[in-house]
Design goal:
- The complex is a heterodimer of chains A (114) and B (111).
- Chain A contains no helices and eleven strands.
- Chain A is an all-beta fold.
- By secondary structure, chain B is mostly beta strands.
- Chain B has one domain: Sandwich (Immunoglobulin-like), CATH 2.60.40.10.
- Chain B contains no helices and eleven strands.
- In chain B, the strands form two sheets. In chain B, strands 2, 4, 5, 9, 10 and 11 form a six-stranded mixed β-sheet that branches.
- Chain B starts with a strand and ends with a strand.
- The chains are: A mainly beta (114), B mainly beta (111).
Chain lengths: 114, 111
């Protein structure tokens, strides 16, 4: 079991460019979560899928951010027209089925927007 | 606003001592979880304590839950340098909402 895999580990983009972050959950897990972590804001919830369906996206910025889970083996977080304030570590986690169970996190993608 | 918050930003102890991190939360919960995050890694769960449980242990770790005061604590005994990390409590508001993390307490264990 390789755990949750996130790629790339580091991504540098210029202001206004698009960034796509990838997450491969643990096989057999039906829930996938995305979080953003910064020194100032801490660990912020972004969005949550269960069985590939969006369950809660209350933490997603309304503009420029979107997340998808086209199949059970991967999820993507896309940020359009990146801004310096989007710089953060983006963490993906999976669990067997809900948030009331153990979340297994990947090592994160560090996004730097210049 | 945070659903859960740790009460202190940082704690420092020497190896072998015990340390306790406290957490308060705001809503009815299904469970409360404690996570540890070391530098450069994602958070890793230490203990999950359900709302009908009052105490849970995992090796040198002990978590308590008081639903009447909406608070929890995580105690680490016989601390080691490798326990140096940020410790988070996290709660799920009842209704299947996502797990929301507190701001974290940095625990530093020195030789």
């Amino acid at each position: 079991n390789a755990g949750v895999i996130q790629t790339p580990r580091h991504k540098v983009t210029g202001k206004g460019q698009e960034a796509t972050l990838w997450c491969e959950p643990i096989s057999g897990h039906s829930a996938v979560f995305w979080y953003r972590q910064t020194i100032v804001q801490g660990l912020e919830f972004l969005t949550y899928f269960r069985n590939q369906a969006p369950i809660d996206d209350s933490g997603m910025p309304k503009e420029r951010f979107s997340a998808q889970m086209p199949n059970q083996s991967h999820s993507t977080l896309k940020i359009q027209s990146t801004q310096p304030q989007d710089s953060a570590v983006y963490l993906c986690a999976s669990s067997l089925s809900t948030s009331a169970e153990t979340l297994y996190f990947g090592s994160g993608t560090r996004l730097t927007v210049l | 606003s945070q659903l859960a918050e740790e009460n202190l930003w940082a704690l420092s102890v020497h190896e072998g001592e015990s340390v306790t991190v406290n957490c308060s939360y705001k809503t009815s919960i299904t469970a409360l979880q404690w996570y540890r995050q070391k530098s450069g890694e994602g958070p890793a769960q230490l203990i999950l304590i359900r709302s009908n449980e009052r105490e849970k242990r995992n090796g040198r770790l002990r978590a308590t839950l008081d639903t009447s005061s909406q608070s929890s604590s995580l105690s680490i005994t016989a601390t080691r340098c490798e326990d140096t990390a940020v410790y988070f409590c996290a709660t799920d508001a009842q209704g299947g909402r996502a797990l929301i993390f507190g701001t974290g307490t940095t625990v530093s264990v020195s030789p």
